[in-house]
Amino acid sequence: MNKSKPNVVIINCDDLGYGDLGCYGNKVNKTPYLDKLAEESMVFTSCYAASPVCSPSRAALLTGCYPPRVGIDRVLFPADPLGLSKDEFALPHLFKNMGYATAIVGKWHCGDQKEFLPCEFGFDSYFGLPYSNDMGRMIGRTDPLKSPPLPLIAGNEVIEGQPDQSALTERYVEKCVEFIRANQSNNFFLYFAQMHVHLPHYAAERFVTESENGDFGACVASADWASGAVLFELERLNLLDNTIVIFTSDNGSRADRGASNYPLRGRKHTTWEGGQRIPFLIYWKGKIKPSVNGEMISQMDLLPTFASIFGEALGGQKIDGLDLSDVILNAAPSPRDEFIYYAEHSKLEAVRKRNWKLHVAKAGKPEKLLYDLDRDIAEANNVYNENPEVVEELTRIYHDYRVRLGDTLTNTPGSERRPCGYNENPVALTAYDPDHPYYIAEYDKNDVG
Questions:
Q1: CA nearest 127: which of 149, 165, 158, 87?
Q2: pTM (predicted TM-score)
Q3: What is the distance between the alpha carbons of residues 238 and 348, in angstroms, rounded to a whole number?
Q4: How many domains would you assign to the chain?
Q5: In-domain check, residue 438
Q6: What is the separation of C-alpha 275 from the centre of its chain, rounded to a whole number of angstroms?
Q7: Domain residues for 142?
Q8: 361 and 227, same structural domain?
Q9: Which residue, of 159, 273, 329, 441, has the greatest Cβ tally within 10 A?
Q10: What is the mean pLDDT of residues 153-181?
Q11: What interhelical angle do 302-310 and 54-63 show, nearest 10?
């Protein structure tokens, strides 16, 4: 192991909202391990996922790009022809170039055809689901073509159909622990993409019994336990002091069934703050000072930040992420003073510059909504008419991104977009077997991605 370089662990939850953790103010969900991690971490209160839905958000975290730039601007489904392009330079490529062992455990959701799976993008190993845990067979949704049995994958091969989801988090933790133990003498990068708290909600019985917030609270507690188990193993092997640990979520919560984005407005699928402002903790003992940091950052900034910290080169293509190394190591002001809010299908709906956020359009209709997020994090007080100069400035930024990255609301294609991967003959990853006693999950028709 090169002790001058730290290991890196990213824990990315699914649909966990800004207000779902104790360290972000939740009073009912039980998150003792993450709350303890927060006490020892830099806790960001203004971190953004690049999309309010899964596939675009995850593609952005990996590539450092707004979703339209890499062509992944919608939720991907089983046997989808689209996936992340092999030409994109992603986080695992950066670590592989340094000789790190790399693994992903959990949800991928950047394409389910074999050429789009994680081991094609710099990961040495993969164990998990290729897309959301509601995309398998469900009560009321059992068409084998539209909803093939949920495939559990090891490497590039399906090893099981419709796994019992109440036991899946424990299996994920086992794989994380196996990877850490196998590489305790090497440098490693682990991306643990948790299943929780996406619907359907399944947690082990002990979490259900102890929950004060129903099945949702049980899944939050399960995600907390899983994170704690990984941290425990790192500490047990005397690796934690030389490991950067990041905990975050792919987008805001659904804001129902006990989920919370408080005090933010909106929910998953929306470009209100509740759709894209997410929890973000970063720990590195002796290097990152424990604190609460209100600087604006994005998950897209991880790739260039790690490249800077490690002195490694990025790929040759343009990205949207910025180097945050001075922010996290020295509590300097963030170089990110603007953020662009893309809804699914490249709908450019809002722009933030410094403390100001302008909602420009929704469903093809212009909006005249301006909020001062420093004073009004809940986006409750429209100050559009009182600030014409601010509106003009943010409108210019909107038009610039509309031309460069596109906007389907105005039928603008975008000049800097790159094509995603495409398979003209996609196939489901698992064959339908009518005689197999598949585990049939609940189904909520209102949830996608």
A1: 158
A2: 0.96
A3: 46
A4: 2
A5: no
A6: 12
A7: 7-336
A8: no
A9: 273
A10: 95
A11: 20
